[in-house]
């Protein structure tokens, strides 16, 4: 077993992604999100522009870095045999709760805590909407496959959009609660439960 490379202080070396994230945070607070360029972030971090794009598709990815890492677990959660044994609505509910439970509660997306200081404005709406749409397409496709329907049919759309909206509202509330916010799952689980019960009843599950 190899150890993590360490610097002179004995601490693990920070990755380029972490250095870029710190540089971006400083610049967003100094100049605002719109007033900061990728070139400035790369220069502050001491890396090339190409290195930036090795880690991030654009500036918006830095705003949601801490949440995107957890959202990347959702496809795997939906494929879990234990989840797929459940009725459709309950399985989506369980997957969302599993993702929330696995989230590192020390990691809170800047987009939800520093929006005013970073002067995000419409950029926050656009980047958040893009993430919602991506997850909505994933969940709607899953529901459609389980029900033998098309993703654009009514129930895959309704199940996906309502459960994700409940989970998303819980994430926003959790992030903005401050240092006493507690674990993310404690906010997400009670938010999605009543929505899931209503959907399950409507679908006869």
UniProtKB/TrEMBL annotation:
Positions of the HTH tetR-type domain: 14-74
Listed Pfam families: TetR_C_14, TetR_N
Segment forming the signal sequence: none
GO molecular function terms noted in the UniProt entry: DNA-binding transcription factor activity; transcription cis-regulatory region binding
Protein name: TetR family transcriptional regulator
Keywords: DNA-binding, Transcription, Transcription regulation
Organism: Frondihabitans australicus
PANTHER family: HTH-TYPE TRANSCRIPTIONAL REGULATOR BETI, HTH-TYPE TRANSCRIPTIONAL REGULATOR RUTR
UniProt DNA-binding region: 37-56
Xref: SUPFAM superfamilies: Homeodomain-like
């Amino acid at each position: 077993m190899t150890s993590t490379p360490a610097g002179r202080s004995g601490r693990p070396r920070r990755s380029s992604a972490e250095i870029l994230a710190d540089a971006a945070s400083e610049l967003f607070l100094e100049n605002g999100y719109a007033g900061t360029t990728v070139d400035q972030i790369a220069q502050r971090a001491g890396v090339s522009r190409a290195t930036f794009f090795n880690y991030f598709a654009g500036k918006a990815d830095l705003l949601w870095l801490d949440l995107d890492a957890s959202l990347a677990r959702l496809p795997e959660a939906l494929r879990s045999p234990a989840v797929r044994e459940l009725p459709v609505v309950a399985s989506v509910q369980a997957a969302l709760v599993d993702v929330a439970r696995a989230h590192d509660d020390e990691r809170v997306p800047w987009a939800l805590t520093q929006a005013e200081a970073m002067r995000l404005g419409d950029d926050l709406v656009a980047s958040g909407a893009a993430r919602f749409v991506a997850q909505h397409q994933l969940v709607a496709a899953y529901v459609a496959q389980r029900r033998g329907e098309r993703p654009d049919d009514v129930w895959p759309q309704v199940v996906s959009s309502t459960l994700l909206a409940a989970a998303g509202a819980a994430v926003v509330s959790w992030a903005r609660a401050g240092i006493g916010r507690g674990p993310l799952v404690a906010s997400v689980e009670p938010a999605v439960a009543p929505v899931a019960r209503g959907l399950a009843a409507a679908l006869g599950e």
